[in-house]
Amino acid sequence: MPSNKIKSIHAELEQKIISILKDSPKYPAEIFRMLKLTKKKDMHIAQKVMENLETNKRVVRDRKNIMKAVSEKQLAVGKISLTPHGFGFVKLADAKEEDKDIFIPAKHVNSAMDGDTVRIKIIESDRNKAEKGPCGIVYEIIERYRPGVVGELISGREGLALRPLNRRIPENIRVIGSAKGAVKGDWVKANIKYKGDIGSKHSQTVCEIAEVIGRAGDMTADMMAIIQEFNIMPPYSDEENEMAMKLEPREINREDLTNLYCITIDPHDAKDFDDSVSYMPVKGKKECIIGVHISDVSSYIAPGSYFDKEARERGFSAYIPGNTLPMLPKKLTRQMSLTTDKVSLAHTVLLSINTLTGEVKNFKRVHSKIQIKKRLNFTQVEEYIKSKKTEPDWDKELTKNLDKLIEIYRLMRDYRKEKEIFLDLSTTEIRILRDDATGEIFGIERKKQGESDQLVEEYMLAANSAVARELTNKKIPGIYRVHPEPDPEKLEEFSNFVADVFKISTGNLASGRVACRAFLDGIHGKSSEEIITSAFLRALNRALYSEKPSLHYGLGKGFYSHFTSPIRRYSDLTTHQQLWDADTNTKPRTEEEMARAALECTEKEKNTDDAYFAANDRLKLHYLNKLMMEKKLEVYESVIRHIGSAMIFVDIMDLGLSGGIPVAYMKGNFRKSRGKLSSERGSSSYKPGDTVFVQLEKIDFVKGDAVFRPYQY
Hints:
The chain is an alpha+beta fold. It has 6 domains: 4-69, Arc Repressor Mutant, subunit A; 72-143, CATH 2.40.50.700; 148-216, CATH 2.40.50; 238-485 and 541-616, no CATH class; 486-540, no CATH class; 633-710, CATH 2.40.50.140. The model is unreliable at 126-131 (pLDDT under 50).
């Protein structure tokens, strides 16, 4: 125990050191000199005091060993988002739209976990060229985002450890207490505990096992682990489904639009049918009326009702392959869906379109009754567009209306491309097909957006834009979909990546959407298009929800909302409910309430998406393992993304999966130099961007990785 005299000496030294560093940053030797310390003993004491100040985050030390004082003015509060590499970014609670997120190096995360609300100290307002933007350290954890974590039980340095399933928690967590019967290789759910003060050298995140989920590598257990990690709510109970079936629609004035030729176009395996389109000419004018008819969900789900609260808690329908977990009860969804067997209640936007230019001249929104005349799927419509192929039960009235819908959508898209300069960011969606009843994998689907998708998308975009303008013009509080402009630094990093790997110049992307679209148009049809477009998407900010209208960068729209999917998105349901209240002279919810709902929807959308991607990637491993067991070893074209000392990391676009090729599998002796592999004998070499044909070698379910080897070997 230090004496009072020693404490007093240390406190005095602390004040002197802080005073010196307030003027300007200094090297430790300069501090010793200014303190007039010449004896080793005194220097040792001062060194200990500086280390203590550093531990308590009152001073910080950069890579050049320069020390800086941290003032209270540099403290800020925000939410931290961690990457799989350990570093993270903090979005400040009071940040303006133009403010940059604060970069947090891995060494300064200090036990914070993804999603935590933290108090940080900003230590560099501008980092060097390699690390642009402000930099900070986690000073205090104000609120923990997660009480628990799901992961796989493994051997650690001090006994058992948990490898988190969520890759945003990059470090293994030591297990304390009983294993509860779990053994290495099991998925477990654990409660997180914290030992020591945050920021101290001895702070540590540990966990206690709460539940054993199942064996990692077992498909059912893998999916259950993902559902629990991302807190996806379970299906509605039979009792809740029966309760939902007793709901009666609320009364409202409706227009009878059953005379319109309404069709639905959905995926072949669609569960919900919440949108329909129709075409109607306008006599004597070069105009037509496109009807966008959406299931009138708000007639059944009033704000604050039981199923409204349940829907808000879920936020979105979760489409985990083999585990569809709907936002609303299935039986109610079927009742509200727009199907051919009944007259349906709809919420309709009637768009007046100039048939020469494709411009939306006007619109009217009504509650309606409609009759679906034909249910189609995307594959059927795509084949009709390409080759005029029809199905046996198609008649002339259907093809006449379909021809008009195709003609008008093309005009609208061309008009929007010129006026709004939207970005075409379509990529190939690759998903595993898994039977909901048996859980068995029966295939893999590769889907690139075609004209049939664009047709539906164009009409939905127009309806969403129209509704956003009405909300704004009538001052009805609502939820808007916004997409912030990309950070110039991220665009520069993307440009450097494309130049280094593919030897392609992007031009100045930060100058605006015109430059971005010109670049994207320039790579269209190239073999590298898919991987470059995916990288470009990662360079953009994520779209989010807001109570205020703002730019949607990707679409080029200043007013945009989500209205067209109220069965599966709570944001859309909220928009319907606000409009219903306005239409019935009921006071809608306030802008403050919309702000809370928008924030919740943004967070729940991200969580639901993360769960889907985690499940789909895990099922891809099971799909590859199934092929291996059946001795169906396919050859895949891969593109080198990065070269490590022992592993070549590749992207396999046909699978939508990343994998690794051990350097040892490459024939000959190779050495890594300047980011590429060069043969010590001969001229062969490999660098990022090169194509390598590979075959599956093994699946590592423990690490969740696929290992490949070059096909020719």
